[in-house]
């Protein structure tokens, strides 16, 4: 899709509410009316350019058994910087490189920051990452190793988001939440799964959901394929804004969870996330932190070392199918991030 010439001209952002159009290199990150951006492009043009590459590959789909339950693990934690966010970063950085952008800033709880910093380094772009000050040291080291500047912000993820917007200067806001170009990259996972399952869509996909980058990316990808799996979003019972919105239950005070990548109290694309789950006939569930910890241990004792957030999806799938699962159901669990970064 990021092709020079007439295709590129057809691509632009538009407001999901009032439909106002914005060019891709806009320094606005949302519409003047407050609406979030969507990407307009030719639906038949789905080729993401890979001029800037860190060796992306088709991640393996590995059978995995928990008691009588059989799942398929999509090994996203093996991607170049250790998380699925590399798909989005690859897509967005290639597009920004094409637009001639040389300086970016973003906010992240860690994984997206590492992915964007790595791909920005490969594209020779200046990159600043705003993070909450409780981010893990391993993620800080990784982001800094790629040559990006880190700005730590007190009082959580939402404050980091506010800080980057106030201090953008001449930098392009390369947000994995606001900017639709990121989702264009994530879509590749849907197409890979479809190919790996012999041109079938899985019955279920269980995923941890914070800002919903994977959920929305997979939704868009499977829409291109023409059929949706049931999406089941898994959140920690200590921080579950999507669960509350989806099930229309009163909001509870958000606390911290051991799953740092889904420690998101106010996701920006809540409306879009609820729609994706509804359209797929899926569900939103919560799991207690002790089950996340248990799932992480279970995986690592079988040789798979992932971060807590990834384990939340397995904990959710086990809970969802606690009374059994039809054998013919293909249930995919993407492992979102590598345990080495914890
Ligand atoms: Zn608008």
Automatic annotation (TrEMBL):
Sample GO molecular function, one term: L-serine ammonia-lyase activity
Source organism superkingdom: Bacteria
Alphabetical keyword list: Lyase, Pyridoxal phosphate
Domain Tryptophan synthase beta chain-like PALP: 52-337
One GO-annotated biological process of the protein: L-threonine catabolic process
Required cofactor names: pyridoxal 5'-phosphate
InterPro entries: Ser/Thr_Dehydratase, Ser/Thr_deHydtase_PyrdxlP-BS, TrpB-like_PALP, TrpB-like_PALP_sf
Coiled-coil annotated residue ranges, if any: none
Entries under PANTHER family matching the protein: L-THREONINE DEHYDRATASE CATABOLIC TDCB, THREONINE DEHYDRATASE, MITOCHONDRIAL-RELATED
Protein name: Threonine synthase
């Amino acid at each position: 899709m990021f092709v020079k010439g007439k295709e590129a001209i057809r691509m632009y952002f538009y407001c999901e509410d009032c439909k106002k159009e914005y060019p891709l290199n806009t320094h606005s990150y949302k519409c003047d009316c407050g609406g979030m951006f969507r990407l307009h492009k030719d639906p038949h043009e789905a080729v993401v350019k890979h001029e800037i590459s860190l060796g992306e590959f088709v991640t393996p789909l590995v059978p995995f058994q928990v008691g009588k339950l059989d799942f398929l693990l999509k090994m996203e934690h093996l991607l170049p910087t250790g998380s699925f966010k590399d798909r989005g970063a690859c897509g967005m950085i290639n597009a920004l490189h094409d637009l001639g952008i040389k300086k970016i800033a973003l906010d992240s709880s860690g994984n997206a920051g590492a992915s964007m910093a790595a791909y920005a380094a490969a594209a020779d772009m200046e990159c600043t990452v705003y993070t909450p000050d409780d981010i893990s040291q391993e993620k800080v080291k990784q982001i800094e190793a790629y040559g990006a500047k880190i700005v730590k912000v007190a009082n959580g993820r939402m404050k980091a988001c506010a800080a980057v917007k106030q201090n953008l200067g001449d930098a392009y806001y390369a947000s994995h939440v606001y900017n639709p170009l990121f989702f264009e990259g994530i879509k590749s996972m849907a197409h890979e799964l479809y190919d790996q399952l012999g041109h079938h869509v899985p019955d279920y996909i269980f995923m941890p959901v914070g800002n919903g980058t994977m959920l929305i990316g997979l939704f868009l990808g499977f829409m291109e394929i023409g059929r949706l799996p049931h999406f089941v979003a898994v959140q920690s019972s200590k921080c579950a804004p999507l669960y509350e919105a989806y099930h229309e239950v009163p909001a509870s005070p958000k606390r911290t969870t051991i799953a740092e990548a889904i420690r998101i109290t106010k996701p920006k694309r809540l409306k879009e996330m609820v729609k994706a789950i509804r359209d797929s006939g899926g569900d939103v569930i919560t799991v207690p932190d002790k089950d996340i910890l248990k799932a992480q241990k279970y995986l690592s004792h079988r040789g798979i070392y992932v971060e807590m957030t990834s384990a939340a999806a397995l904990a959710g799938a086990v809970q969802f199918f606690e009374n059994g699962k039809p054998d013919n159901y293909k249930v995919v669990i993407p492992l979102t991030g590598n345990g080495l970064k914890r």
